[in-house]
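Input structure tokens:
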């Protein structure tokens, strides 16, 4: 069986199964993107993990991920790295890897980062034999660091309001809390149960 992979740059669009699809950057790690699905003039914005810096796009409907609350935990391991400790920092995804690598670089700490961010060492000194390693794989053990630079509830609510969406569908661990805040702010919002990000909104094949 042969498959084809089609790259879609930010700002570009394609038509697939009757939907016009466009990617917009979210700032969440390298290549982090949200998807705009347009059908018969109606825009549905589907947003996964994101940072507070994501730019709102006009949409009729919004599908919003409300991820688990992340508590900053960099104080202890960052100080240990400054003192020269050998540390392997295990992060959950590329967004967290980029954030943790940025913190180390800003602190002047040489380190090696995972291949999902591009190969090679990063830091003010030669880091070939660096004692600090950032890894997106749990194999080999290490200190588990969340480090996801995701938007908090206030930022998610502000983003949703700025899109002008007539209906906001929220899913994820904090869906109930974010949906309630949206309703308090005057937005029509409901919690999505299960992976129904397209079918709930009446997006069906046939005509972009």
């Amino acid at each position: 069986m042969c498959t084809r992979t089609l790259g879609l740059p930010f700002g570009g669009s394609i038509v697939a199964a009757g939907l016009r699809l466009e990617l917009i950057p979210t700032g969440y790690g390298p290549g982090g993107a949200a998807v705009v699905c347009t059908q018969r003039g109606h825009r549905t914005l589907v947003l996964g993990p994101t940072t507070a810096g994501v730019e709102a796009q006009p949409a009729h409907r919004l599908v919003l991920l409300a991820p688990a609350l992340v508590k900053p935990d960099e104080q202890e391991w960052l100080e240990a790295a400054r003192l020269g400790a050998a540390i392997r920092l295990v992060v959950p995804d590329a967004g967290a890897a980029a954030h943790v690598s940025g913190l180390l670089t800003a602190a002047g700490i040489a380190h090696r980062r995972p291949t999902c961010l591009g190969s090679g060492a990063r830091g003010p000194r030669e880091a070939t034999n660096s004692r600090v390693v950032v890894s997106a794989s749990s194999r080999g053990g290490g200190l588990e660091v969340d480090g996801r630079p995701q938007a908090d509830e206030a930022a998610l609510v502000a983003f949703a309001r700025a899109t002008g969406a007539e209906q906001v569908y929220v899913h994820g661990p904090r869906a109930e809390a974010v949906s309630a805040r949206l309703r308090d702010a005057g937005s029509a919002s409901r919690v999505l149960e299960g992976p129904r990000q397209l079918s709930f909104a009446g997006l069906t094949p046939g005509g972009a």
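Helices lie at 74-82, 94-106, 153-163, 175-184. The chain has two domains: 13-69+150-201, 74-144.
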